[in-house]
Amino acid sequence: MIRTVLGDIAPEQLGVCDAHDHLFFRTAMLPGQELDDADAALAEVRAFAAAGGQAIVQWTPHGLGRRADLLPGISTSTGVSIVAATGLHRAEHYPPGFVESIRDRLAEIFVTELTVGIGNSSVRAGLIKVAGGFHLLDAHAELVMRAAAEAHHATGAPIAVHHEHGSGADAVLDLLVDELAVPPSSVILGHLNRFPDHYVHGELADRGAWLAFDGPSRANHATDPWLLESLSWMVDDGYADQLLLGGDTTTARARAATGEGPGIPYLLTHLRPRITRHLGQEVADAIFTTNPARALDAEWRDGGTVPA
């Protein structure tokens, strides 16, 4: 099943999916560009739905303004399924002392948000968002990933990974898969378009993980010219069934409905037609529909507890 903010659904119910985005997101790293306007979020999702979108995965993790209480209403109003996240981002996204105050109970927090609810709501997360470092894993990244692996084993939830400038994904798999026994089919490697190395991407795909490319995002627009080429390389090498695509809208300015765009709808109004033209309808269907449903599908264990 796939865990959405309105409850669990069968994978075939997910439909056309933006596999990595943000409706709400607050971080000191992007001052003045907070995504915290409920009306703007609703307008963006409505525009996505009008373009044929049926599901959005919000990768905003614990402590960064997810507004979980608002997500069910947006989903109901638009007919778009929303998957929320637990987990933790890189330390610099949080105020001083925040991470230290919860470091000993990260796995417990993740499991609770996956199986009971986020904050005081009954909205449950459907994946665990974590973050690596630049080309390697620092102490914070390793701490969070170990907690995420515990939560995965307790619940079955998939793990989605932010990679700093798209790097260090090999180190992530070394830890999560090789050492901590998380199945590679439960690991989504994000931001790979920010490190457009065909050979690296092939090596990651060989290890069985999901490869997530995101864009365009104003914060990382320099990678956009390589997006289609990166996808084409993977398709040519036989990895079309491991590819995911998301918009990763991280700033108010990047919204289509209330900012300068291109926003979430761009995935379907511009990128999907290009992918269809150049890579074929079958590949487009895999990237936007079949693959997200498989990547988010989990055998949920709601009675799971974190190992002592």
From TrEMBL:
- What InterPro entries does its record include? Metal_Hydrolase, Phosphotriesterase
How, per the record, is the cofactor bound? Binds 2 divalent metal cations per subunit.
N6-carboxylysine: residues carrying this PTM: 129
The cofactor required is: a divalent metal cation
- The residues that the entry says bind Zn(2+) 1 are 20, 22, 129, 248
A GO molecular-function term, please? hydrolase activity
The family classification in the record reads: Belongs to the metallo-dependent hydrolases superfamily. Phosphotriesterase family.
Give the species this sequence originates from.
Answer: Kribbella antiqua
Q: Which UniProt keywords apply?
A: Hydrolase, Metal-binding
Any Pfam family matching the protein? PTE
Designated name of the protein: Phosphotriesterase-related protein
Where along this sequence does the record place binding of Zn(2+) 2? Answer: 129, 162, 191
